[in-house]
Write a structure and sequence with these properties.
By secondary structure, the chain is mainly alpha-helical. The protein has one domain. The protein has four helices and no strands.
């Protein structure tokens, strides 16, 4: 026997029904803080965070991809 229930409610109503905490205020506070940090950050600083090794890491990754592709293009498969 299989029984199915369809419950039509908002996420806030579901959290309240299940007894989960309301984290909306915390979520808003965290988003505001992240927005503030991003607005204060320079683009160069963002790139340093995303690519800590700088351009060298990107060149090494590009070389690795090219090496792999050249093996398949030349007919040499490992």
């Amino acid at each position: 026997m299989k029984i199915t229930f369809d419950i039509d409610c908002t996420p806030a109503e579901a959290r309240a029904f299940l007894g989960l905490p309301d984290t909306e205020a915390l979520h808003k506070e965290m988003l505001d803080e992240m927005r503030k940090r991003l607005e204060d950050m320079k683009p160069e600083d963002m790139l340093k965070l995303w690519y800590p090794a700088g351009n060298d890491a990107m060149q090494q990754m590009q070389k690795a991809f090219m090496d792999q592709m050249s093996q398949f293009a030349g007919g040499k498969k490992d």
